[in-house]
Amino acid sequence: MAKQRITVCVPPPSDPADPDALHRAIGEAMAPYYYDREDRPHPDWVGEWDYWFVSGANCLFAVLPGHEDDPRLVRYDEWTESSEELPRDRCHGGPRGLLDLETDRQAAAHEAARWWDEWARFAAGHPPALPAGPYLDRAYLDPVGYPEDRARAEYAAQPLIRALREDPELRERFPYDPIGYFGPDREAFVAECAAEALPTPALLTLDGRWVEYGGPDYRREFNAYLDALPPETMVVRVLYHS
After folding, report:
1. How far, in Å, CA of 165 to CA of 144, rounded?
2. What is the 3-state secondary structure (H, E, C) of the chain?
3. 58, 37, 57: which is closest to 46 by C-alpha?
4. Residue 49, Cα to own-chain centre: how many angstroms?
5. Residue 214: predicted pLDDT
6. How confident is the model at residue 39, as a pLDDT?
7. pLDDT in tens, 30-59
8. Are 97 and 70 within 8 A, CB to CB?
9. How many CB atoms lie within 10 A of CB 18?
10. How many other CB atoms are there within 10 angstroms of residue 6's CB atom?
């Protein structure tokens, strides 16, 4: 059992002045996935959550510039004991049309490009190397003749990887298998990192679909879905216990 976040999409409250209207709308959207619901769809049905709170924490949305004071923005966190003072340009959710989805994507893309270029400059000073995958695949197919410890040793013995592993600062900066991680295509790497900026592990759509993390396809669906939502749709980060 663990806590994780879902992005919940619900219609705008019928009474915006009712402070509990949004919470009720989220509760109604989440209800079909409650562990202890009485009307189980089938005998083997298992729910997704047993309690939840409105809470964005480290996955807050950026606010569209010029709309920082809009009362429809969700600035309270139901999970924390004390009210957190959010930056004016951040929120836990709000109308889709008031959320600046591009700011975080662009920031992620910029950082990814910088990181890819930094790795490429370092790698250019050494002979080309193979990623870890071919070594580990061979060990998987022939664990007796080519055990995993030998595979890892031969991967690490490549001049490029050896130079990386021998420098503590570089070891901290780059992943264990940077060749496999960064890949040869800068544009593809940057695009994938940008696509990772907004998705939470799960998405609850307006039509009640609970969609869970599934790699690049999920990230593409998540981003495309939020982009296409009507601007009045409420999009809120929710922390739930599963």
Report:
1. 27
2. CCEEEEEEEECCCCCCCCCCHHHHHHHHHHHHHECCCCCCCCCCCCCCECEEEECCHHHCEEECCCCCCCCCCECCCCCCCCCCCCCCCEECEEEHHHECHHHHHHHHHHHHHHHHHHHHHHHCCCCCCCCHHHHHHHHHHCCCCCCHHHHHHHHHCCHHHHHHHCCHHHHHHCCCCHHHHHCCCHHHHHHHHHHCCCCCCEEECCCCCEEECECHHHHHHHHHHHHHCCCCCEEEEEEEEC
3. 37
4. 19
5. 76
6. 79
7. 999 998 887 777 777 788 999 999 999 889
8. no
9. 11
10. 24
pLDDT digits (tens, 9 = 90+) for 116-156: 999 999 999 999 999 999 999 999 999 999 999 999 999 99
| Each residue's pLDDT tens digit, 173-200 | 999 999 999 999 999 999 999 999 999 9
**Cβ atoms of 5 and 242 closer than 8 Å:** no
